[in-house]
Design goal:
CATH class of the largest domain: Mainly Alpha
Strand content: 35-45%
CATH superfamily of the largest domain: Winged helix-like DNA-binding domain superfamily/Winged helix DNA-binding domain
Number of strands: 18
Helix content: 10-25%
Distance between the termini: 60 Å
Largest sheet: 5 strands, antiparallel
Structural class: mainly beta
Radius of gyration: 27 Å
Shape: elongated
CATH architecture of the largest domain: Orthogonal Bundle
Strand order of the largest sheet: 3-2-1-4-5
CATH topology of the largest domain: Arc Repressor Mutant, subunit A
Length: about 280
């Protein structure tokens, strides 16, 4: 069965004046137009193609790579707006329709928008929606605190930035956890900071705990654990002592333990540093 809005591995059945006809056990007449036909091929070869509906609403194959696939979120430019809705450039000849009923706010030609692409069961057409909440589900998260996740930034609020987490659930990066410029459509790596009882996700762009420390700080902290939580070194130790222990400069050492101190990982006393 050919899946519209996704890649399909199909068999080349025959070559004609208009292109190649592809198929599988269920379909034998899917056209790959001449402009997408590979330079070399053999009848019976398998080919990976993206399938969607052309301007006449007929299933068709292409070797172009769309910017978003079915059941995925993407960040697309609004190419045109008319009485039907907004049409977004998703990398294919025919633009992706976002009907007015699927627009959270009215889309404007030339602007960019985060949307969800899905197959409308009534019209059997691939369409987009900027009403993202109904496609995000936090009921089954299967995530752990400090787990690395993929993020798509989609909306700004008084609290921070709403993000799509791992392409399926909603998270929030609070303003207090943002230390870099962020904009709608940014694709970032983040970390689960907190999973609330109501299944809301707090996300941070920095890993938590020891994972967040710079390499030098990680090295020192690991050594501190190995030594039972106490090292006879501090910010007044000689450069030679520090070099013998860690093969790093005193400046780097001081910066690293400063990081550990700010993270409440250590205390600094006259006899050295202690694990908190």
């Amino acid at each position: 069965m050919i899946e519209l809005g996704n890649y399909n591995k199909l068999t080349i059945l025959r070559s004609t004046s208009v292109g190649l006809f592809l198929g599988d056990k269920d379909v034998d007449d899917l056209l790959l137009p001449n402009k997408y036909v590979p330079d070399t091929f053999e009848i019976g070869d398998e080919i990976n193609v993206f399938c969607y509906l052309d301007h006449e609403e007929r299933p068709i194959a292409t070797t172009l790579q769309p910017f978003v696939k079915r059941n995925e979120f993407g960040f697309l430019r609004v190419a045109e707006v008319n009485e039907i809705g907004a049409f977004l450039d998703w990398g294919l000849e025919k633009h992706l329709l976002v009907p007015y009923g699927e627009q959270r706010t009215k889309l404007v030609e030339g602007n960019w928008q985060v949307i969800y692409c899905y197959l409308d069961e009534l019209s059997f057409r691939l369409v987009g929606s900027s009403k993202l909440s109904k496609f995000l589900n936090n009921e089954e998260l299967h995530l752990t605190v400090n787990e690395e996740v993929d993020l798509l930034v989609y909306r700004h609020s008084e609290l921070g930035w709403d993000v799509v987490v791992n392409g399926r659930c909603r998270g929030l990066i609070f303003h207090s956890d943002i230390f870099q410029p962020i904009a709608e459509g940014d694709q970032l790596k983040g970390y689960v900071k907190q999973i609330r009882p109501d299944k809301k996700l707090d996300i941070t762009l920095q890993p938590l705990g020891a994972k967040a420390l710079e390499p030098a700080a990680q090295l020192i902290y690991q050594k501190l654990l190995e030594e039972g939580g106490h090292l006879k070194l501090h910010d007044k130790s000689s450069p030679e002592e520090i070099k013998n222990w860690f093969a790093m400069s005193k400046k780097t050492f001081k910066k690293a333990i400063g990081t550990l101190y700010k993270e409440h990982k250590i205390t600094i006393k006259e006899d050295g540093i202690h694990k908190v």
